[in-house]
Structure formats: structure tokens, C-alpha cells
């Protein structure tokens, strides 16, 4: 279930069963100011206040039979001459209740002492009669003596009812208060019912018993209930006395608001509205706040509301009524994968704008008011003044040359942010279209073409060039030489006349070469595969390059920083060479032997290699992006932080290689050998692995997202903290593998997977398709297979103690001899399944589907939980 809600409402939901019907209880919570024109505040403000004033518990999420009001606050003596006691009173919608609040008092010689003066006294259960020996109020003031000024005295409660005053120390007077009664106190627990016998277990579990009084969910004392009404009176008048530090009486009307809530189901169909009624108003007078709670219930198919896809609350003015079509469109926009976050900022779609437009939290933080922004603006103003002075000194009018200052409008309101972003997106698109049209017109201009002819510029090539692409064959070594030449020229131009040396005490500033070459090298390494493909070398240049490479190899084997872009090194034996920082972009390496070479930070983007060898090569922080390797031996190679984006490996051997944090987006591996490889911190996105072997491989902290796996052998592999997300896995063999703390997301399919003899510890596979899988003799310890489908799967003799199989589908599966001790199999489907000789000791089979087609011969079911039985499907749900 997904909750789609505005920022100013909170939503509680709780499925429950009452009188044999499964319902989803919903509570929509809002907090308003106690003003003549109430303002709706944010959910964060609501729960912060609840934590500070109400202990964090506002509601249980199930409809209350009787509407009620509550008050949490303090009594104040600021509005009267007597500072030792005051009367607090709440009058709400025709209900009235008063309490007496006293300063600290004690019993002395059987008489109550005079109350001590006070300014404010909390009106809560801690200051009412009670104590550890009082079940009705264990938090209150009890009869245990306290030692005050050397005397043992018994305190009196600070809060009493004017109708039941405490007259003696042993008086059994009920506790008095306005506050919520905790649900575990006996005055509420008495309504929970007592019919929890076998009949309840077989017919009503997990619902409430038949003799339960639903008034258990009323939290206020009974004299604060509207017992004869279904909801709080509309626009109920209220008066609260002596519970505000500055106002003796607070009065007004409750906000005339109407909450609504809509639900959608996984099965589709029209959006359903849940009938809500205002059942609770909770005042916090000293904070000028009131919380309002609307309750409703929706009939559901599943007892845990698994059939509900979305819940969406909204709030309107009572005279306003948006049709269901409006809310249907809002839900569709807010759950949109790409644009949902933007539409979620439209608060007015679900909340009437009049309810919050005056709220103090309606704007984003003003970042321009921060010191850094203020200093930046002040500096800009000083520079502008200097420019104006310069222009005026030249006799020019500064206003004709300097643009007018833009007034700071401040941050936009949050509700306007979505529209502002959409406007910016439209402006960007229009700007790009205008730029493209202007560029086309400029390139087609006759004068421009005449100039291009004179300047020897190929305008057609310019028109076809990719925007932002760097020139083909970008050569870092050439750029370095250019930077050195520039530095030398700059040094010559700045040298003192007569050749005298500068001040030797002044350190020389590094030139451009020293300052930028490392950054350019890094940029080239990361982006070489995004540039235009370099053209191959001419035949005579290719031969000259081969001769130079052979000569260098004979001399020192050091090719560090060499530029070999587009070089043809086919068939050359260069084993043991150092290619650190070298550029081999687009090089041809067919049949070359590059064993034990060091390619640290080397660029081999778009390189091609057939039937060559890179055994034990160091490919640390190097780039093989969009390279194509076929039949290459890469056993024992080290690929650490290696770029493999878009690379294609066909029939390559990586046996014993180590891969640590490589970038493998959209890489493709076919018929490769990864035996005994080690993988660490790998994140592959949309990569493809086909017909490859990973026997005895070790994976640690690896993730595969939207990848495609087919016919992979991971026999005896070890996977720790690995994740498969929205990945299609067909024909994978995990026989005798060990998986620990690993997960397969619900969007992943493991068709015809093999886990025979494998061990899975604390793994998550919730919602994964495992149809036709083979799990015989697998050990599944503490793992979650809830909502998985095991249709026609083989799970004979599995060890699955204490694993979760809630709502798993074992239709046609074989679980003969399976150990399912303490396994959770609630709501699982066992039609046509074979549970012969399975051990179901203390397994939970509540609401599981077992019928005449389920084979149970020899199964051990002692201690198994078989109740409640699965219920017949509910007809089309109605509210």
C-alpha cells in the first residue's frame, strides 16, 4: 500500500476484523490554529506538538463509536487574585466539564494544608489522584508519605473534580482529568471483551471477539463523549477557561472543514471514497492549537489490506466539493514514475488553498538572507557602484550601459514551486528551440557561407558536429606541449628588462602545464568514450608507430603517458610493459600479448582485441569503455575502478581476476569464464551476462540493477550483501552456492533457477518469481520468501526453519521431506503441492490454502498452527 498525501495532513490506517468482516480503519489528522480564521498547519508541526503535549499517541486508527473532545494543557492563575487555586473549564458543542486545580497540598493531622501559590499547573494524570497502587491511574499522586521539612506528610492531588472532592486521606475518589486515558488502563481494557476461546480462534482470529465494546477506541473520559451523535457537531462552539497564560477565556468555533479519503485497489476499478466523520477534537489551549481527527473504514478483501494499492487523504472547506474525477487525476499524476515528485508539491490539489495561505510555514527558507549570500550581494553592489563611477567619469550615462538591478522577490511559496519549475522547463525548451533555429539560419546565411569559403571552414561539417563533442583524437601529450610553450612564452614576456633576475625570495607561480595537466588527463580518462571516434592511422604512420613501439620495448618497456591513439599493435609481444597514463583509444590489439602489463589510468576506450592476452594485467583506474574484446585471456587481471561502460566481452577468460568498484553500465559479457574471480563493491546498471561461468567466484557488496542474466553458472559461489534489482535472471545455477544478507527485489524474475544444495542466510526474495525452480536440499535460514511464486518448483528436503513464506504460492510444488519447523506459511497456497513427510512442527499455517489436492502423507503437524482457516473470497467490496 502506498500513501499519497499532502504535507498538511497525517494519515493512520489499521486493518481489523469485526463481526466477520475485514475492514481498513483510516484516520485523517489535521492541526489548526485557535484563531477567528483558523489556519491548517503542517504534519510535522502536528506530530511535534503531539510528542511534546500528548506523549506521541493521538489515535489508534480505528473508528470511534462516540465522538469526543480532549484537552491537554495547564491551569493558570494569572487571571485572578487568588494564586493558590483556579477552576478550569471546557465547553465544546454542548458538552461542559470543569476541574479544580490547586497548588501543592498535604494531609497534616487529618486536615489538608492550604495550597501553595502557583503560576501554572499541568492538568494531566500525573497531578490527579492515583499512584502505583491505583490501577485506574498509576501515574498519579498516591498515598505514600513524603518527608517535607522534617515531617512525613501525604500529598493531595493537584487536580480534582468539583463534583467529587477529596475529603479524607483514604477517600477512593476517581481520578479527574481532561486528558486521554492510555489504552492499557483497566477502564479501557475492560471493553476489549473476553471471548478469546477456541471458537474465536477458529472463526474470528485475528479479529476482535464478539463481546468487544468498540468504545475501547474512545480515549477521553466518558463525560467528554457525544454519546448520541455520530460526529462532532459542525462548527461547534468552544469556550476554554483559565488554560492560556494571557487570555482568561478562549472562545470560537471549530474550523468548518471536511476531510476526505480515497482508495484504489490492486485489482483496478474506480477510485473508492471512504466515508469519514469528525470524531475527535483535541485542544492544546496554551499552544493555541487544536487537532482534529476524522475516522472511516473501508471493506477489504485481505485481512492485512494487501489488496489496497493507494490511500489518498484530502481536506476541503465544508461548502466546497471537488468531484471524484479531480482526485482520480491527482492520484494518477502523483504516482507517475518520472513526474510524481513534482506534482507532490501541488498542495492545493489535495488541500483547499484558503486553509493554509496565511500559514507561517508557507514559504521556502530564504537562502538569500544567509551571510554568504548577503556578502555576495554586497560585493556585487560595490562593483556596480565602481562601474557606474567609471562610466560617469568618462561622461557616459551609466543607466544606458548597466542593466537595472533586479529586486529580490524572496523564495516562492512551496505550493508555487511546481508551477515555477514547469515554467522554467518550458523556457529552457523554448530557448533550445530558438538556439537551434538561429544556428540553422546562421549556417544557411549566404554571407556566412562566403566567409567560410574564404576562411577554409567546412560549414557542413560544423552543422553535423555533435554539440559539446571534443575534437577527434584528443591528444593529452600535444596539449601538454602546447601548455609548456605557452608557459615559456609567458615567462619570456614577463622577464625583467636587461635579463636581470627577479626577486629570488618570491616563489615562481606554477605555469598552466603544472596546474591543469593532471585535471585534463583525468577528464580525458573519464570521457574519452563520449568523444568522436578517432580515425585510424594512415598505413605509413601505422608502420612507423609499430617500429617506435618495438624500439621502446627493447630499450626500457616504458610507455608511460604515450599517445598511441588509433595505433595498430596487432600480434606484438609487449608483455611486462608499463602503459601508465598512456592513450590507446581506438587501438587495434588483435593477437597482442600484453601479459603483466601495467595500464594504470590508461585509456583503451573503443580499443579492439581478438585472441590476445591481458593475463595478470593491471587495469587500475583505466578505461575500457566501449572496447570490444573477443577470445582474450584476462586470467588474474586486476580491474580496480576500471571503466567498462558499453564494453563488449565475448568468450573471454577472467579466471582468478579481481574486480573492485568497476563501472559496468551497459556492459555486455557473453560466453565468458569468471571462475574463482573476486568482485567487490560492484554496481552494474543495464549490464548483460549470457552463457558465462562464475564457479567459486566471491561477491561482496555488489549490486545489479535492470540487468539481464541468462544461463549463468554460479556453482559454489559466495555472495555477501549483494542485491539484484529489477533484473531478469533466466537459467541461473546457484548449486551449492552460499548467499548471505543478499536480496532479490520484487521486480526480479528467477525463472528455472537452481539452488540445489545452496545455503541462503538472512536473504530477502520477497515477491520474486521462482516458478520451476530447483531447491532440493537447500538450506534457507532466516530468509524471507513472502509472496514468492514456487509454481511446480522442487523443494524436497529443504531446511527452511524460521523462514518466511507468507502468501507464497506453492501450487504444484514438491516439498517432500522439507524441514519447515517454526516457518511462517500464513496465507500460502498449497494446491496440488506435495508435503509428504514434511516436518511442520510449530509452523504457522494460518489461512493457508490446503485442499483435497494437497498431499500430506506422513507429514508431521504436531504443534502446527492451523487456525484460522482460509476464508472464502469476499464478493466485490463495498464500503
From TrEMBL:
Domain of life of the organism encoding this protein? Bacteria
Query: Which residue numbers delimit the DUF2169 domain?
Result: 20-295
Organism lineage: Bacteria, Pseudomonadati, Pseudomonadota, Betaproteobacteria, Burkholderiales
Q: Per its UniProt record, what Pfam families does this chain match? A: DUF2169 (PF09937), Pentapeptide (PF00805), Pentapeptide_4 (PF13599)
For this entry, the protein name equals DUF2169 domain-containing protein
Residue span of region Disordered: 161-183
